[in-house]
């Protein structure tokens, strides 16, 4: 929502908090069958995309989120080849996944084509890997896609979804995690954006429980800064099928053959360290 014409403000009612960005002008406004997509030019954060009034992506800080939603899980799997991204319509996560030369296929399934079309218009650097021959973009419900997937189809499933309301609500359920478990090969992993450690501890706890009830052997929450998301502190939760997500290929990460702006082996290890209140 905008409090006045020069500022875009996202309010977090449950926490009595808000986040504002000074805007220059609105660039895009589309109501799709699923969501309301807006794009603004801001003073200090470059281009901003919101979905249903919530910040999704800004030019200035999306690199942290997209790198942390992809490189930790990819450097944890022994040899990832087939990757599925659920959501991720802005294509930033897809771009990071495709930096890994061993990946032979990256399928992205976002329910709302309007998000990708908006990204193509307003976030050119995020979509610049979409023409990679390994990339396949589909527009469908990720819940259905995974439920219909043949067993053992993927090495990694990345759930880069909106918050657990509306079309994304089912992506946080035990039934969905059970489908993911079946769609993954042995040694496979899922990683899901798991909201704010400060604001959404219950969502994170419930996610760990649902993943384990769905059959995953062990789970791990990574935490990292994300200025434009609620509380400025975000997380991603990994779960392993027949492997522990705490063992990552640290040497390979240290020798990564591609450029990043946030992720490196030390950051990966640091992101695994949890504050006392989360350990409890
Ligand atoms: N980084 C953002 C965040 O953490 O809130 C999310 C990025 S991305 C824009 C979120 C995407 O999830 C949206 O494009 C939305 O269309 C998609 N999405 C929501 N529910 C979905 C579902 N059931 N299946 C596939 N994609 C879904």
Describe this protein's structure.
The chain is α/β, with parallel strands linked by helices. Helices cover 26% and strands 31% of the residues. It contains ten helices and twelve strands. The protein has helices spanning 62-68, 71-74, 92-97, 113-122, 142-148, 174-183, 201-213, 250-254, 265-271, 276-279, and strands at 7-12, 17-31, 36-42, 47-51, 54-58, 82-87, 105-110, 135-139, 154-160, 184-193, 218-225, 233-240. It has a seven-stranded mixed β-sheet, sandwiched between helices. A five-stranded antiparallel β-sheet has the order 1-2-3-4-5. Helix 4 links the parallel strand 7 and strand 8 (135-139). Helix 5 (142-148) packs across helix 6 and helix 6 (174-183) crosses helix 7 (201-213). The termini are far apart. The model has no long low-confidence stretch (mean pLDDT 96). S-adenosylmethionine is lined by residues 51, 56, 65, 86-90, 109-112, 115, 141-143, 160-162, 167-168, 171, 193. S-adenosylmethionine (SAM) is lined by residues 51, 56, 65, 86-90, 109-112, 115, 141-143, 160-162, 167-168, 171, 193.
Question: What are the defining features of this structure?
Answer:
single chain; 280 residues; alpha/beta; 7-stranded mixed β-sheet; 5-stranded antiparallel β-sheet; globular; binds S-adenosylmethionine
């Amino acid at each position: 929502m905008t409090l006045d014409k020069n500022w875009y403000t996202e309010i977090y009612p449950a926490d009595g908090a808000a986040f504002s960005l000074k805007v220059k002008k609105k660039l895009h406004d589309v109501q799709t069958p699923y969501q309301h997509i807006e794009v603004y030019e801001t003073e200090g954060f470059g281009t901003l995309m919101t979905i249903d009034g919530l910040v999704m992506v800004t030019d200035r800080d999306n690199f942290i989120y997209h790198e942390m939603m992809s490189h930790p899980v990819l450097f944890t799997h022994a040899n990832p080849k087939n990757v599925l991204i659920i959501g991720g319509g802005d294509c930033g996560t897809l771009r990071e996944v495709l930096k890994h030369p061993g990946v032979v296929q990256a399928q992205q399934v976002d329910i709302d084509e309007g998000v990708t079309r908006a990204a193509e218009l307003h976030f050119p650097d995020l979509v610049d890997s979409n023409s990679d021959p390994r990339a396949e973009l589909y527009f469908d419900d990720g819940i259905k896609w995974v439920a219909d997937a043949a067993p053992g189809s993927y090495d990694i499933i990345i759930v880069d979804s909106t918050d657990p309301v509306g079309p994304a609500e089912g992506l946080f359920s035990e039934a969905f995690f059970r489908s993911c478990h079946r769609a993954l090969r042995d040694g496979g992993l899922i990683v899901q954006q798991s909201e704010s450690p400060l604001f959404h501890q219950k969502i994170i706890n419930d996610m760990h429980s649902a993943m384990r009830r769905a059959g995953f052997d062990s789970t791990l929450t990574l935490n990292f800064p994300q200025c434009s998301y609620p509380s400025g502190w975000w997380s991603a939760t990994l779960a392993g099928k027949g492997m522990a997500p705490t063992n990552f290929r640290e040497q390979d990460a240290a020798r990564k053959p591609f450029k990043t702006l946030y992720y490196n082996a030390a950051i990966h290890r640091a992101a695994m360290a949890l504050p006392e209140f989360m350990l409890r």
